[in-house]
Amino acid sequence: MPPATQAPQSPGPALELLVHGVGGATPQEMLDDPRTVRITGDATAAIYRRAEDTDAEQHPERYRDRPIPEAYCWSNLTSGKGSRALWLLLLPFMVVNLAHWMRPTARSRTRTVRLYGVLVRLVALSLTVLLTAAACEVALDLAAWQCAGVPDCSNQRSWLGFLSTAQGGWWSQPGRRLALAALVPTALVVLLWFLSNRTWSAYESQRPLTGTDPDDDGPDPAPAPSPAATGAAPVGRPALGRPGFWYGRRLVARLRAAHTAAGFLTVAASVAGAAARHDRSVAGPVPDILGRLIEAALVLGGLVVLWVVCRRGRSERRLDNRLDRALITYLPGAALALLVLAAVYAAWPRPDWASSGALPGDLVFSVITLGQGVLVVVLAVVSLSLYHRTPEPRTVMFGLGGPVVAMLACALGGVMSGGVSQRVADWLDGPGTPGMGRSSVIEGPPVLLSWQASVIPVLLVLLAVPALLLLVRTWLAARALESRIDQEYEEERPDPARTRQIARIQATAALTDSAPWILGPVCGATLLLGAAAVCGAWVSGEVPGIAMKGNGAFIESVAQAAQSTGSWMVGLGFILFVTWGRRAYRDASARRTIGILWDVGTFWPRAAHPFAPPCYAERAVPDLASRMSGWTGLTRGRLVISGHSQGSVLAASAVWQLPAHTRMRVALLTYGSPIERLYARWFPAYFGPGPLHALHRSVHCWRNLWRATDPIGGRVRLDEGPGPEVDRGPLKDPLVYGRTPEHPLPEAVLGHSDYQADPVFAQERAALLERLDPVLPRQAGGEDGSGAPRTHGSSGKSSG
C-alpha cells in the first residue's frame, strides 16, 4: 500500500508580480501607494513593495483574501538617462536586428535557418560599412579633398585654413589631408565599439538561471496542436525557453570585433585608395607596389571579416560562457594597424600630387546599394521557402516580414548617410548647389545620393494610395460598428455622437493589423526605385536635374523638382533625428516618448548588429525568472505574474525560462498584450502558434484580457483544453455608455490603459489564484521525475 499522506493544507501565501508596459510607470503608480520600498534590484531595474507589505511573509494572516503585490519597474533600462535618447541615431541598426528574429517557423530546415541568419548578418555588416563610408565621404572627400583643395572654399572656412592648398603648409598635400581627416570616421568607429561594449556590461551581462530543463533537438517547437490533442505532452522546448537564449555574449563579442574591423578597413581603403591610384598613374617617389600590397591586405582583411560574420550564429541550447579572445582581440587590432599603415603611406611626400574633382565615392555607394538589394532579394526567397514548408496563416506577408524590415533598415541607413553628405556639401559650398554647376565651388557628394534623394517624393506619392485605401476602409468599418455598439450597451435612447466616438476608436485600433498593407508595398517600391536610382547614376553620371536636360521642359522641371525636394526632405529627416535626440536629452517627457520606441525595438537580443541599442530583456527576463523561482522556492506559495502591454511579453518570456516544477506554481495574467497581435504575426518562429500552445500547456493557468478599443493588445487565440479559455474579451470600453446617477460625468475610453479599473481584472486574478495548487507536504516516496515535489490536484496541464 502507498504510504499515508497528510491532508492537504490551506493554500499558502500568494504573490502578484506586476510588470508595466511601454513608456514605464513608477512604483507608486503601479502599487497605488505613495510609500514604496525597494525589495531587490538597483536604480536601473528593481522590485518594489508597499511599505506595509515588506514583512508580508511573516504575517500570512493579513493576506488570506488578497495577494501580496509587488512591482517590477524596468523603464530605466530604455528611457532613463538623457544620453540614451541619442540612441535614436542607431535606428537602422536596431531595425535590421529585428529582421533576424522575423524569420518564419521552420522544422527540419537547419541549413536554411542558418542561411537566413547569415544573410541578415551580412545586411547588418553592409550598414556598418555604409555608415563609415558616409563619415569618410563627409570628412575625407567633401572637407579634406574637395573644399581644402579649392581656395575659394577653404578661404571661407577658417578651420580649414591649415589644410588649404593656398597656404602651402605641411598639411596641404592631399595625402596628408586625407590621413588627418581619417581621424573623424575612426573616432566614430571607436565610439560605436565603446558603446557596444559598455552597454553589454550594463544591460545584457545578466546570466540566466542555471539548472533548467535540458533542451530538445529541433530548431523550432512543434506546430500548433489540434484541440483533440491537448492531452499530449509538448514536443520540444520553445526557443525562448532555451538556457542560452537571453545570453548572447559570445556572438555579440564576435560581431563587435568584425564590425569594428570592417569600419577600420573602410577608412583605410578610403585613405590608401586615393594614394594608390595616384602612384599608379604617375611615376613618383613612392613605388606603386606599396599601394598594391596595402590594397591586397585590405582585401584579405575584408575576407576575414566576412568569414567571421558568416561562420557562427547564436548558441541558445546551452549557456555559452566562452569567448573567442584571440579573434576579438587581434582582428580589430590588426585592422587598426592596417589603417595606421595606410595613413602613413598616404602621408608620404608626393610634391606633384594635387586634388581635383571628387574621390570615387559613386562606385562605393553603388556597390553597397546593389549588394544590399541582392541580399534582400535572396533573403526574401529563403523566407518564402521556409514559409511554404510550414505555413501559418497569421504570419504577416507570407513570411516576408524579415526581408521587408531589412529593406526598411537599408532605406533608413541610406537616408541618414545621404542626408549628412548633402547637408554638409550645401554648407561647404555656400550659395552654390553642388552637382548642378551653377556657381558651385566644389563638385559635391556622389551623384547616386542625389538620385536616391530624388525617388523619395515618388515614394511618398505611391505611399498615399494604400494610405487612402486604409482611411476609407476605416471609415466604412466605423459606420458598420455603430449598430453593434448600440446593441452592446442596450441604450433606450442612444447618443449618435457617443456611438460614433466609440466606433471610430475601435475602427482606428484595428489599423494595427493593417500595417503590412503599408509597409510591404513601401519596401517593395523602395527596392525598385533604389535599383532605378543606381542605374540612372551609372548611365548618366550626372544628378537628375542635369541628366534630364534635353528631354522636354516638363520632364526636366519634374526631375529638378524631385531632386531639390528629395534633397530637402533627406536633410530634414536627418535634422529631425538630431533635434529629437537633443530635445530628449533635456526634456523628460520627450525622452519617455523615444523610450517607448526602444521598448518595442530593443526587446530582442543583438543577434545581427552589435552596434544596435542594447537589449533590455537580457536584464529583465533573468530578473523576473529569478524572482519567481526564488520566491516560490522559499515560500512554496502561489504566484500570479501580471503583465501589461510589453510587460506581458516579458512575463511570458520569463515563465518560459522557469524550471517545470516552478511553472506549476505560477499563473500568467496578461492584459493589453501584443503577444499574438504583434509578436506572433511578425515573429512566428518565437511567438507563433507552436510556442504559444507550448506555453499554454506548461504554465498552470493563463488568462488574457483585451479590448476592441486597444490598438496594441489583442487576443492570444488559444482555444484548446476543457478548462476556461485563455482569452476574455472584448471587455466593455467605456464601462458606462453615457451619464448616469452613479456616473454623472462621461466615462473616458481607456483603450490600452487602466485595465485594473475594470472589475473583470480583480475577478480573473482571484480565479487564477483559486486554480493554483494548494501547498502540500512531500510524499514519503520523494520527488517526481523532474525533480519537483509530487503534488495532488494538478495534472501539469494548463487549465486556463
From TrEMBL:
Lineage: superkingdom = Bacteria
**Coiled-coil ranges per UniProt:** none
InterPro entries noted in UniProt: AB_hydrolase_fold (IPR029058)
Would the keyword Transmembrane helix turn up in this protein's UniProt record? yes
* Residue intervals passing through the bilayer: 85-103, 115-135, 178-195, 257-277, 289-309, 330-348, 363-384, 396-416, 455-476, 517-541, 561-581
Region (Disordered), start-end ranges? 205-236, 772-800
Q: Which UniProt keywords apply?
A: Membrane, Transmembrane, Transmembrane helix
Tell me yes or no: is Transmembrane among this UniProt entry's keywords: yes
**What is the protein name given in its UniProt record?**
Integral membrane protein
Natural source organism? Streptomyces atratus
